[in-house]
Description:
This protein is mainly beta. The chain has one domain: Pnp Oxidase, Chain A, CATH 2.30.110.10. 11% of the residues lie in helices and 35% in strands. The chain has helices spanning 70-78, 91-96, 107-110, 177-180, and strands at 23-24, 26-31, 37-42, 45-50, 53-60, 80-85, 115-116, 125-126, 131-142, 153-165, 170-171, 174-175, 183-185, 191-193. It has a seven-stranded antiparallel β-sheet with strand order 3-2-6-9-10-5-4, covered by helices on one side. Strands 1-13-14 form a three-stranded antiparallel β-sheet, with no helix packed on it. It starts with 22 loop residues before the first strand and ends in a 15-residue tail after the last strand. Bound molecules: flavin mononucleotide. Flavin mononucleotide binds at residues 25, 38, 40-44, 58-60, 63, 69-71, 95, 98, 100, 185.
Amino acid sequence: xxxxxxxxxxxxxxxxxxxxxxxPIGWISSLDSDGTANLAPYSFFNGxxxxxxxxxxxxxxxxxxxxxxxxxxxxxxxxxxxxxxxxYDLRHAMNLxxxxxxxxxxxxxxxxxxxxxxxxxxxxxxxxxxxxxxxTYSQTVELLKPPQGDASNLVIxxxxxxxxxxxxxxxxGRVDMKKTxxxxxxxxxxxxxxxxxFTMERPDWPTT
Length: 208
Ligand SMILES: Cc1cc2nc3c(=O)[nH]c(=O)nc-3n(C[C@H](O)[C@H](O)[C@H](O)COP(=O)(O)O)c2cc1C
C-alpha cells in the first residue's frame, strides 16, 4: 500500500508509530516551581550527541486543559530534569505515570515509586530504575504543527551532566543489556523487551 500522509490511510489505526521502532522510553522526572514532583514517559526520546552528551524528547499536543504538558512546563521553568530508564519490572508503574493526572499530584506517589535524590540537579530519580541521566535544559525546538487545532509538537533538548549506572548491571565494565532488562516502545499498545543481542564490528575502508 501507499498513502499520502495528509490523506486517510484507510487502516484501523495510524501505522506511523509502528514503523519507527523500537523507540527507547525516556521516563522523565521533573519538579514544578512549587516543588511537586512529576514523572511521565516519552518515547519520542533519544540520545542525540556524545560530546557533550545530549538527549531529546518530543511532547505532542496539549493536556485537555489546553496547557503544555507538565514535563515541558517544569523543564522550561526549572531548567532541570532526570531521565530514568524503564525496565520490564517497572512497566506497570511507567504506564501509570502516563495518565493525565492533575499537575499538583506527584506521579511517584500515584505509581508507588520510591524517590532518590539526584547528585547535580534538584529533581528526584526513580530509585528502582537501574540508569539515570541527570540533565540540564538546553533548548526547545518547535516542530511543524497539525494543520487543525492549536496543538504543538515541541522537542526539548537537554545536556546530560551526570549518569548513574547501577553496579549490578555492569559486567566486565560494560552495561549488560539483559541485566538492565529495559523495555522500548513499538506501535499500537505493543512494547519490546531486549532478549536477543548480537555484535558486529564496523568495517575498515576499503572493505575486504
Ligand atoms: C510508553 C509511552 C510513551 C509516550 N510517549 C510520548 C511522547 O513521546 N510524547 C508525548 O507527548 N506523549 C507521550 N506519551 C504520553 C504522555 O506520557 C502523557 O501525555 C503524560 O500525561 C504526560 O505527562 P506530563 O503532563 O506529566 O508531562 C507516552 C505515553 C506512554 C505510555
